[in-house]
Structure formats: structure tokens, C-alpha cells
Write a structure and sequence with these properties.
The structure is a homodimer. Chain A is of the alpha/beta class. Chain A contains 11 helices and 16 strands. In chain A, the strands form 4 sheets. Chain A has a 7-stranded mixed beta sheet, sandwiched between helices. Chain A has a 4-stranded mixed beta sheet with strand order 11-8-9-14, covered by helices on one side.
Chain lengths: ~350, ~350
Amino acid sequence: MRTVEWQKGSVRLIDQRWLPWEFQVLELRDPTAVAEAIRDMVVRGAPAIGATAAYGMALAGLRSDADSVEEMCADLEAAADRLHQARPTAVNLAWAVKRQLAVATDPQWTSADQIRAALIRHAHQIADSDVEINRQMGAHGATLVQDGDTILHHCNTGALAAVDYGTALGVVRAAHESGKRVHVLVDETRPRLQGARLTAWELKNLGISFDVIADNAAGHFMRTGQVDLVLVGADRIAANGDVANKIGTYKLAVVARENGVPFYSVAPTSTIDLELPSGDDIPIEERPPEEVLTVAGQSVAPEGASARNPAFDVTPHRYLTAIVTENGIAYPPLARNLRRSVEGEAI
Amino acid sequence: MRTVEWQKGSVRLIDQRWLPWEFQVLELRDPTAVAEAIRDMVVRGAPAIGATAAYGMALAGLRSDADSVEEMCADLEAAADRLHQARPTAVNLAWAVKRQLAVATDPQWTSADQIRAALIRHAHQIADSDVEINRQMGAHGATLVQDGDTILHHCNTGALAAVDYGTALGVVRAAHESGKRVHVLVDETRPRLQGARLTAWELKNLGISFDVIADNAAGHFMRTGQVDLVLVGADRIAANGDVANKIGTYKLAVVARENGVPFYSVAPTSTIDLELPSGDDIPIEERPPEEVLTVAGQSVAPEGASARNPAFDVTPHRYLTAIVTENGIAYPPLARNLRRSVEGEAI
């Protein structure tokens, strides 16, 4: 199944909190439950969150008892607010919700039922197009990978982070499918271990060679010449090319540049926020300290210990070799080339 | 109690594998058990390993049934080999074993019993002097800490990593004891979580303010101006000032320099290996993959996943602001000033 699916008026999500131990599917029937699932990271990964939020808006339409277009739009605005607040950093959530609101307020609709149907149709479009976009990114990005390369990868950016296929891991997959032999060093990605739990699970299922490493070990492997390139995703990219992504990305990028290792972010244009001049304007979510103080329910620090838990960091654009989108590979100057990429022009 | 103690012909160690969950003390009666305890990380931290190995040699003397000086020396050589192989990176182990062998082969001894007694005396000297050395490093290092500073700290370098007091954490402690208000960001230090488990436990017991962070978050805090200095220990320092230390140190050092954050290694001169020209010559221990694939006994990756687990990395000397030893603060040029430090000259 896809990471996010629509079935008979409900949204089905692979519950990513329990992988790789258990494969559970959660079925949600109203937008509040969808917002909670996003906040609790049942589903994560910027593109997957975007598609889930789009379906959440479709559910908001279905569950609303509005009779008129006006009442429907008011209900949708309220649902949009709830979804929007679930997680602040990834822009795809806001992007999808905004697109659904635009669909709902199209002046052509004369009844609430027309809006209900349009929201479901449009959610399907977003989801289907995400898969197609990922395959395009994979094809572009695979040209950056040579036969025999070792790729360092952070967090999870695979099929589970999108509707299907994946962003940065989609590039790995495309390279593998084209017959290149690749090996992946999988940053385990504390605190939530998306690398060890999810990326390793996906790579194993795909039959791609990998080793899990502690995040701390990435520098050692780069300094000793054992890494050919680094691939990460993105949760929000500012107009100047600064990338907000999973905590730890910034450290990786600095150490990659120090060692002359190419560093690429792979993300759909829906992740690019041209309204933000720089990464300094991206809100950084701080998640509960328990994510740091426990691992799989087991406490790892003394009782009463406190923790700080920023979920993302910002990598300034100067550390990026290029950004891969569905429209091609944007090299510096990123401010110019990202804008062209968003506008679908040749970069 | 001290991390390492001698009691009636046995070595007592705080079993650091179970902290902070349980405080257990292991009592060892022969040098093979001591070597195993070092390998299994019952005791860890370069200075603590050094003192433990010294006592291990004393046990080897006691357990040997040698009657003559020659037989005794042969037995001690065998024990030295076993201890030596327990962990390859920290030089303090080799240093302590070598010192004990030198004690044993002193031409003044005419009986095996004299050697037995000398080894015990000398192990006590090494242990007592470690505590004194740590206090001296604390006093020197505390001059680098300002009132109100936030200190980023990696791994555990506290009383548990030494016989008592600590190296880098000894500096934090000395600053705190002198009335400076400090706050510590504690890198949890995967894979074995020495930061979350041991450093947090020590800081809590000392009443020093701290927050545990995922190792991934250190870059974010440095880039956003929330770190005043970084303090780490060392497992081996080459003649040119390259520092082998817990995996992750290198990444921290690179990111610290990139952000203009001072980066100090705190270590006794017994950690400095003047016979090694550079860090490239330091053997890097690779530990079992299970340390990465599990946390506190809980698997965190899919079944059958493989992992790489280098326990240390090398930080080239150019990233270090200074190295603090019991003889003072050695600034660059480190090749010259470390040698002076070892020789006890004014730096």
C-alpha cells in the first residue's frame, strides 16, 4: 500500500511509529484525527505530510454538515487551521492545505456537495502527482550517482516519507534500478531513529546494500574518504536556497564541505517557499524532551533529566552542492535557479 | 566510592553499563577478568582504563604462583599482553601497563614478593595521582570558562571516566565550584549513550544545570549562538596535536570552528603519545554492530540489518583551540607546546 491512501471516506496511514517492529495501518475518519496523526508522527516526511493534509481537508468536507457553500468554506477554514498547526516546519503541509482551500473557494461551485467531491478529486491529484514527481526527481538525481558509489543518507526520505517512491532515497532507488551498484551509510537519525527504523527497512525490502551508523560516525567516514556523496531531503527551502531539514543535516553539510564531499538536497518544488527570503525565517519545531530521554520506551537518562529537542535545523545555502527537484538539478546561484525551478523553466 | 578501587586483593569497579538505571559494583580477582571488563566497557574513559590496567597488573602479580623474579616477569608480560589487547585506541592503557612492567623489571628486586608489593604500591600511586592531575586540569581549564557560559560536552569525561573528578567534566566542575554559573548541553553520545546515561547522572548529582541533546542537535545550537565553548576529553593525542576521541568529536570540532566556538580537549599528559607523529597512525577500534542496532537491549533496526561501529574518530589539530593538561593550557603550535607540556616545562 501507499504511505497515505484514501478508502471509502477515510484516510489510511502506515503507522510509522511502530516500524520496523510492526506493520500497522491506522484508519482516520475526521480531520482532527488527521492533525493528531501528523503531530504524533504516525506519518512524517514533508511530501507525505502534504498529501495527508490534502486528504484531511477532503475528510473535513465529508464530515462537515454544511448545506451551503459559505458554511462549507467556514468549516474548511477551521479544519485548515487545525491541520496547519500540527507541525510548523515542513511547508508542504501549508502548501497542500492552501491548495485545497483554493479548490474549495473556486467561484464555480454552487453547492457544498460539489466542494466535497472537488476536495477528494484534488487530494487524489496531489497524491498521484507526488509519486510522479518523485520518479522525476529520482531520474534527475540518479545522474549524480556513479556505479560503485557509497551514499551517506540522513533521516528517512523513502516511500514512507512521500506517498510512494521517495525523494533522496528515490534517487538511491533510481540509481539502483538503473543497474548502478550503490552502498548506503544510513545515519540512524536520533532522536526518532527514522534512519535505523525506516530507511534500513526500506533499503532491506528493496535489496539495496547498506550499513546503519550512529549519526556521530558520519564525519569519520567522510574524513577517511569512504563517502562519495550525501543525499538528504528537505522540509522547507527558502528562496535563497537555505534548507530546513531533519536535525543533524547542518552538521553533515558542514563536514561534507570540509571534506569535499558533494551534498545534495532532493525535494519537490512544493517544498520551496519563495516567500521566505532566508532560512532564518523558518520556524523550528521543538518537540517533547521525552523523544531524547527515551528510546523505544526505555529511559536512557537519569530520572528528572531535562532535554532540548529541536526537530530541524537550517543548512545555509553555501553548503549545498545542488538541489534536485522534479524540474531538474538546481546549482548555485540557488536564489536564481530555485525560482526558475519552481516556475518550471529550464534551469 | 572511586570509579576504580583496590580492596583486599581485588579490584572493584563501578559497572558503568547499568548506570543510571542501577548502581552495581563488580569485584574482579584476576587480570583476565580485568581485561574483559575493559573490553566490555564495565569501565571506560582513558584515565579510568589506565588506572584499572595498573591494578590489573597488580592482580597479575598476586595471582601468579611465580617463585622467582624471572618467572614473575614472564607472567606479568603475558598479563600485559592480554590487558593491552582489550582496547586499542586509548593510550593510557598501554601507558599504565608499560609503567607497571618497568616497575616489575627494576633490577633492585630480588624476590617475586617484592615485585608483588611494588605493583600494588605503584597502582595506588597511579590512581591517586590521577585524581590530583584531574584537579589540576580542572583549575587550569576553569580559567577558560566565563560566568554564565553554556558548555557543549561530548561523551563522559567525569569522575566515572577517571579515578575521580574527571577531565573535561572536571573543568566544568571546577568552574562550578569556583562560583561560575554554567549550563551544560550534554551530547547523548550514541551508540553507547555515555552522555545521556553517565554525564547527565554525574551533573545531576553535582547540582550543575544541564540539558541532554541528541548528538544531531549540537550543530543547531552552535549555529544559533547558544554555545560558548566545547569541552571534550581525549583517548590518545598524537605528537602533532591530532586527537583521537569518542566517535562524533570530529564533527563537533569542524562545526565549532565553522561557528567560531572555542574547542578544547582536556586530557592528562599520559594521553599524549609523542611516539606517534599524527592521528593517522592511531588505531581506531571498531566495536560490535549490536551497539548501533540496539539501545538498552531493544532492537532499533530491522532484523538482519548490518551496521558499522567505529568507536573513535580523529580530530586534526587545526580544529583545536587548545589542549588542557595538568601542566597548563597548550595553544598552537601544538607540536611544540604539547612536547613541553609532557616534559613539564612552562608552555
